[in-house]
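I am sending you the entry underneath: sequence plus fold tokens. Let me know what the token row says about the fold:
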Amino acid sequence: MPAPDLIIVNADIVTMDPLTPRAEALAVAAGRIAALGRSAEIAALAGPDTRIVDAGGRLVLPGFQDTHIHLQDSGQGYGQNADLTEARTVDELVDIMRAFGATHDRPWVDGVGWYTGIFTEDNLDRHVLDRAVPDRPCFILASDGHNACLNSRACDFVGLVKGVADPPNGHFVLDADGAPTGMLHEDAIKWADERMPQPTDDDFAFGVKWAAALANRNGFTGVLDASVGDRHVRVYDRLDKAGELTVRVCATARVDPSETVAGALARVSAYRAAHQSAMFTVHSAKFFLDGVLENRTAAMLEPYSDAIGGNAALMFSHDRVLDFFIAFDAARFQLHVHVIGDHACRAALDGFEAARKANGRWPSLHQVAHVQCIDPADIPRFRELGAMMNIQPLWARHEPSVTDVALPMIGAARGRWMYAFRSLIDAGAPYALSSDWGVSTFNPFEIMQTAITRQPPGRPSDHPVFLPQERMTIEECVRGYTTHAAQAAWRDADTGSLSPGKFADIIVLDRDIFSIAPHDIGETRVMLTLLGGREVHRHAAFSG
């Protein structure tokens, strides 16, 4: 073979390939893994132009892949607007927005990342934002993307006044007099957004590059953008053709309840036909079947258990779920379904079952994203249907959105099956790990630590454990970010393991996450990230 372009030696390589599970060294040629073996034998392959990286005995893994994030939208949001993730009180939120407005001379002052476990319609409204930004319109989006708030000038700008009816699948919060408070739920955000000035394609291209750099620092070489439309596809295509992507982007195209089956299928089919490169591909269709518990839009099989009671309807009727899923499955699209409530989960599985009966069995790996609540009767159906749970383990912990909101809302009996990852894995459910960034941290090591401990990172080891019987192992977590993630993105032929012939998407870590104490995993740092053998991140402390 010709001399490799790159060699990594003196490494503890865990390939995630059962045929060659471990190695000391590897060689890269033309962007792909060329050979694995001992340091001496691989080093002997070097030519005069071969670059040699000494890993210093560190752990080397396949590049991670996050199979449910919002790279473009959150990149633009966090990269260009006020970051509210650290706000813990109303006064702190006001101070952050006021300071940002004072240093940014813009027609609108926007923020992103406030936490719905702290800020609700009871303590956040247009008057709060008027204190922060009295002279211009202000819009702030919650980290979950399902809630937002406008100040008074923004309400006036978009025409949100008393008497405006709720849009389909959305809600304007009203005060005692029936006037809008400025708080928006679900597709009320879309209603307001359509009436606001929009960022440009250049803004979103900046956001992609900003977010991709963050991804690389966290060890990611691939992502699945979990809700794209025309603008997303246009911006990704532009960056792909310019050679400016530093993560492989797989995209799932959002289908809106207002669309017809034929219209949605034609649109998403056009995306897929035009975008199948090594760096950008469209392979799936996204369906939101419900919202979130925090604003009472999660669809449950039985009414909520708290004093308010009530329930939420599916965003697609059950019959329409079947119609859409059968049609998209027949066209050989993967289905990627947002599910929070146990009714939404059952409806998704019913749709998969109907599609299989109509179209036959094929390796679709249709995905159920989040799986916050599940009826235990539906657990075996994941294995039976080959449905993959796409999970965000960082949420499976004692925190306000769980202890103060979700558990009182659904009660102890249903709460026992919240984020029931161990039960699902033991029942044979395929799975992949993800962050849902910018809803929560991009950091995979904090997420893996939480999956293993069911405790928040940074808390004492005696912090209460949330459903300890549902904990995962570190080996399961790494598979969820590598081999399983590659399967979820339909890229396992080229990624997911350090196997000869696959892309040289490689990360070097500062510690062995397989052997350290679980509570230390979250402190892991990525020393080096390679995409197709090309360096896209190097930690300042790494000299290899």
User: Anything to note?
Assistant: The chain has three domains: 6-63+502-538, 108-193, 201-488.
